Amino acid sequence: MADASERLARLLGLVPYLTRNPGTGIATTANVFGITPAQLIDDLELLFVSGRPGHMPDDLIEANWEGDRIYVANADEVSVPVRLSSREARALLIALDYLAEVDDVEPATIARVRAKVSAAAALSPAGGAVDVRVPERPAALQAALAQARARGEGLALDYYVAARDELTHRLVTPKRLRLAGAWYLDAWCHTSGGPRTFAVSAIRGFASAPVPEVPAGAAAGAGGPRDEGLGVALTFAPEAAWLADELETTAVDYDAAGPGTVRAQLRVHSREWLTRLLLAHGRHVLAVEPPGLAADAARIAAQAAGRVD
């Protein structure tokens, strides 16, 4: 269904484009619409059976592309570019308002683009207004990052790890602040010896501090060479489904093992951390993949219960 909808939208844009640009080459047109020449030919062949109800020869769109040049005719009804729907326009307005909140964009630029989108979709100013609320930018931390970079220093963080109920102390070389539903700090952690992502909400304190050089060939944060860790999948019972929101997951599947269950995929850089997680929440963990990763937690739990010789 998605492919059919995308193709219909492309055809509705293709005819006005070719009507306004007669004789455009096949390769050029395919590049404009982000498709291959073979896909474009397939679309043009579909136009032969498209047109007004009745499907008589005079009702159908004419398309000719001999000699690598494309011409269309008898397409007056669809020769006008498709307008943005109200829903599409509002989605763009939301994106603009979101961008204004999270990036340093000139307000005047946002206002101009906003007005053009509203006009294109015939939205009234009131009707186009959308209240977008994003997590407040951590201005103090952002200022500390800028100051640390100016001094050639890093940051000393007091970072709370909820999984261990522990306040840790980290020395990091920051890379960037990133918004992904909540604010995160990507950095090279000298304390852990690798790239890490820190939830800003869990940072209890920070200060500029001298840091050693980031190891050669390593990157300060996501996007560069890094220890990818071990891929793990944990399936949680409904009582522990909230853990999928607390962990740094790479994929989440809901109702994977029944209503309310959650299968969370993540990268684990410490077997000890995984063991502690399983010991704390094991009664609500329905499955661990690979299965052998649960062995350490099971052994420690058995020892604690006095069942191991």
From TrEMBL:
InterPro entries associated with the record: CBASS_pafABC_assoc_protein (IPR051534), PafC-like (IPR028349), PafC_HTH (IPR043839), WCX_dom (IPR057727), WYL_dom (IPR026881)
Domain WYL per the UniProt entry, residue ranges: 143-205
Name of this chain's protein: WYL domain-containing protein
Species of the source: Brevibacterium rongguiense
Stretches assigned to the WCX domain: 232-305
Domain PafC HTH stretches: 6-118
Superkingdom of the source species: Bacteria
A Pfam family that the UniProt record links to this protein: WCX
